[in-house]
Amino acid sequence: MSLRTRLILTHTFVILLALALLTASLFFILRDYQRQVQLSRLGDAAVPLAFQARTLFASNVPFRDVLARLQQQAGTTGTVFLVTEKGVVLADTTYGLANRTIKLNPPVRAEVTRGYFWGSLQLKTGRTLLYVAVLAGQVGGQAVYVALANIERPLFEVLDEIGASLCMAGGITLVVSLVVAILLARSIARPLAQLTEATEAIARGKYEHRVQAKGHDEIGRLAASFNAMAERVQRARQMEKDFVANVSHELKTPLTSIQGFAQAILDGTAQDLAEARRAAQTIYDETARMAHLVGDLLTLARLESGQMPMAREPVDLSDLLPRWIERLQPRARALETRLVTAIDAAEYRRLAEASVLGDAARLEQVVTNLVDNALKYNRPGGSVTITAKVEPVESAGRSTLIARRKILPQLTPQWVRIAITDTGEGIPAEDVPRLFERFYRGDKARVSGGTGLGLSIAWEIVTAHGGTITVASEVGRGSTFTIHLPVKDGGANARGSPPLPL
Ligand code: ADP
After folding, report:
1. How far apart are CA 493 and CA 209, in angstroms?
2. Does residue 371's CB lie within 6 angstroms of at least one atom of ligand 1?
3. Where are the domains of the chain?
4. Of the candidates 407, 330, 311, 434, the residue with the CA atom closest to the CA atom of residue 372
């Protein structure tokens, strides 16, 4: 059974139940009301009868005659009988109640029964007799009441009168609420059906499928989060496709070259030794490039899957950073670029105190990659400056702060900030968000043969250390790559801090 049908049926059931309860309570209210009206009428008619009875009693008229006179006066208003204050019927001509004791209830609603006693009793015929007793006078030392009785009007007679309008009201209520139920069910079921359709479409591989997200209610929010999820799935799929295409392309180019030069050696196109040597050199270079690419891919895959073994030791950057930079000096000289470390003595001391927890070799890989890029994408005669600072976490922006606290809550709120600034051509603003994507390469890099994986690897390593890596660049002036690494908390370290999420 569909959700829509279920909603409509439930709604209808609830409405019918409500109508049934309403009818039942109406029935009881009507019965009570009807009885009160009848008692009130009997009470009104009984008062003058009681007056007359009093006069007759004073004249010592026997009960039977009194009764006959009173009945004559009452006419069709009801049946008269005489009753003592204890409820013993003294005389009755119609219902054979003489000498029986009937109940005399005190008035329940003074405004209706005007303080007269009343009662009801079941007759053999199954009908109910209603009566009102009014004090007439004292006869032989006991109080005598005149009772006026009438058969209670059966309720179905009353219902007969109002039944038609009651049915009409019930019918209208039912129809209106059914229409509302159908509209409501449709408004709930339709977006759900659309969501189901969209889920099936995505399962079939149609990742571009979206649903209409209207309003801020539960369904609107579900649709919006579904769309967000679909967006991410689509992006992930696209990245996967791009990745495979990129890897194939990157491997194919050197392979074609290797094949060509090997062919040249084999079929004798490379005639002399010098030519064969050149061909072999190209094969060697291309193989080295492929090995580099495959190595980078492997590192990236391991980092992403969390399988890369990563040490968690205190890293003293005041000692290591200058050594890492020193190792890059020959490359800087070869590229005719100045490589400068701008850290003063006081900052070195602070760096020595605030060591970072992590893997020194991997962090060196990050710094080397960033400095290498800064040298590579510089202009001849340019410079690369490295600075390092210990600073409070608050300076790093709110989102990174929250992210860091989540990852390493035990650390004191301090960062080591390493900035690598070059005087190169800079990166166009539209390219900046793509820098850390796998295989992203700028135009110059395409020529120089970079793999486009270096920054992705750097990003993965820094993130695994609970840090961040950001870029600020200005075309024509140069770029600054900044790494923020959380500082190890001395106290927490002594207790033994939880492992890094590597
Ligand atoms: P690769 O250097 O192997 O191409 P990376 O991932 O290290 O790969 O860098 C990606 C791209 O980012 C580079 O191709 C280059 O276009 C750009 N880039 C990186 N560092 C700099 C820099 N310091 N200045 C200008 N562009 C840069």
Report:
1. 50
2. no
3. 3-157, 218-305, 313-486
4. 330
Domain 313-486, what architecture? 2-Layer Sandwich (3.30)
Pairing relationship of beta strands 142-151 and 128-139 according to DSSP bridges: antiparallel
- pLDDT at residue 495, rounded to an integer: 35
In angstroms, rounded to a whole number, what is the distance separating the alpha carbons of residues 73 and 53?
Answer: 11
pTM of the predicted protein model: 0.59
Q: Binning pLDDT at 50, 70 and 90, where does residue 110 land? A: low
Confirm or reject: Cβ of 4 under 6 Å from ligand 1.
no
Q: Is 409 helix (H, G, I), strand (E, B) or coil?
A: coil
What span, in angstroms and rounded, lies between the C-alpha atoms of 254 and 15? 76
Which of 300, 328, 377, when mutated, tests ligand 1's pocket best, judged by the most ligand atoms within 8 Å of its CB? 377
Q: 134: Cβ below 6 Å to ligand 1?
A: no
CA of 258 to the centre of ligand 1 (A): 26
Q: Whose CA is nearest to atom 15 of ligand 1?
A: 442
CB distance 366 to ligand 1 below 6 Å: no
Q: Per-residue pLDDT tens for 215-262?
A: 888 888 899 999 999 999 998 888 888 888 888 888 898 899 999 999
Q: Which of 373, 378, 425, 439 to mutate to test the pocket of ligand 1 (most atoms within 8 A of CB)?
A: 373
Mean pLDDT value across residues 447-454: 75
* CATH T-level fold of 218-305: Helix Hairpins (1.10.287)
Mean pLDDT score, 103-108 = 81
347: pLDDT confidence band, cut at 50, 70 and 90?
A: very high
